[in-house]
Design a protein that fits this description.
Layout lengths: L4 E8 L3 H14 L4 E5 L4 H7 L5 H9 L2 E6 L15 H10 L4 E7 L12 H4 L3 E7 L9 E5 L5 E5 L5 H17 L3 E6 L5 H14 L6 E6 H10 L6 E4 L1 H14 L9 E3 L5 E3 L18 H13 L4 H16 L13 H11 L1
Parallel strand pairs: 1-2, 1-3, 3-12, 5-10, 8-9, 8-10
Antiparallel strand pairs: 4-5, 4-11, 6-7, 11-12
Helix pairs in contact: 1-10, 1-12, 6-7, 8-9, 10-11, 11-12
The structure holds glycylglycylglycine.
Glycylglycylglycine binds next to helix 4.
Length: 350
């Protein structure tokens, strides 16, 4: 008997519910041994229960075999104490679940060259993965406010990594590159930051275990430039939490839209949280304008990485490609199709 895998669906805020609904429809249409439970997270959870990551939501996330996450963020809570803001839900989940390895693949689907910010021949060459460290860096270092001796308000966020944190993500970077074209580019700012010098030292140590992978190093400012100058030169990028967040948003415009980039956040046992890299986009929430492709592609990553269902994952990715090949486009890609129409096109192509 096949055991049924439990998927926790955490739609969140803004366009999160719209895009996760399409991803769920695609999963349900495949008649896989999956069951689904939904729970509120982010601003939606704060409104309902006074906390962005309620105990029941965290318990479901821990109990589930995998998590499909939408997006969090709501300008209504901008002034709220930081620990209660919607974004704390995703940071809390990543920390509680120890999902330290964030895989963010960026490739251009045929026909989307015209939506890219790059020349078509440059855009066509993009096929890369950003391996972003997710549990450390300036996101999780000590934070604070104080008043200086001169009476000025000061804020600080400590950027820190220890060598074990760098080593484990470096292994993921090398393993990812080894399964692809065998090229790993480690991105840091070692000419200025001590954390980055440690990062570079440790990545070089780990490289000894992967002689088949060609390792290069790049400063983050140069990497940002090369991503728009010659993105086809990148295969796998391994980098810290902040740099990875910024570079992957940049990469998304090279492949047409931030609505196209999925992600997997994995723990040491490949249990994972899967989410589009985009945020809650409150400006278009509830209007049926959001592109659900990143959420649908995140569902495919979930099947592949956490549930050992590679064939269905391939089918979903092929269906997204086939749907786009018919010319259906949401507004972010220059079209007029609704979120639901894009989901329908993927379902029709399955
Ligand atoms: N689906 C991505 C999302 O909800 N992003 C909102 C956010 O605050 N993310 C923080 C981060 O990715 O570092």
């Amino acid at each position: 008997m096949t055991d049924t895998k439990l998927i926790a669906i955490l739609p969140g805020d803004g366009i999160g519910p719209e895009v996760t609904a399409e991803a769920r429809r695609v999963l349900e249409a495949m008649a896989l041994p999956l069951s689904f439970e939904e729970a509120p997270v982010g601003g939606a959870a704060y409104r309902a229960s006074g906390h962005p990551l309620p105990d029941e939501t965290l318990a479901l996330a821990k109990r589930a075999d995998a998590i499909l996450f939408g997006a969090v963020g709501d300008p209504a809570f901008d002034g709220l104490e930081r620990s209660l803001r919607p974004e704390q839900a995703i940071l809390g989940l990543r920390k509680h679940l120890a999902t330290f390895a964030n895989l963010r693949p960026a490739r251009i689907f045929a026909g989307l060259e015209d939506a890219s910010t790059l020349k078509p021949e440059v855009a066509r060459a993009i096929d890369l993965v950003i391996v972003r460290e997710l549990n450390g860096d300036v996101y999780f270092g000590e934070k604070g406010r104080r008043t200086t001796d001169a009476g000025l308000r000061e804020g600080h966020d400590l950027m820190r990594y220890d060598e074990s944190e760098v080593r484990r993500i470096a292994h993921i970077g090398f393993q990812t590159a080894a399964k692809r074209r065998g090229k790993l580019c480690s991105v840091d700012k070692a000419n200025v930051l001590e954390t980055s010098q440690l990062w570079r030292d440790v990545v070089i140590e780990v490289a000894a275990e992967y002689p088949q992978v060609e390792l290069t190093h790049m400063y983050v400012d140069n990497a940002a430039m090369q991503l728009v100058r010659n993105p086809g030169a990148f295969d796998t990028i391994v980098t810290g939490n902040l740099f990875g967040d910024i570079l992957s948003d940049q990469a998304s415009m090279c492949v047409g839209s931030i609505g196209m980039l999925p992600s997997a956040s994995l723990d040491a046992d490949a249990k994972g949280l899967y989410e589009p890299i985009h945020g809650s986009a409150p400006d278009i929430a509830g209007q049926g304008k959001a592109n659900p492709c990143a959420a649908i592609l995140s569902a495919a990553m979930m099947l592949r990485h956490s549930l050992a269902m590679s064939d269905p994952a391939d089918r979903i990715e092929a269906a997204v490609a086939a749907a786009l090949a018919t010319g259906v486009r949401t507004p972010d890609l220059g079209g007029t199709a609704s979120t639901r129409a894009m989901g329908d096109a993927v379902l029709a192509a399955l």
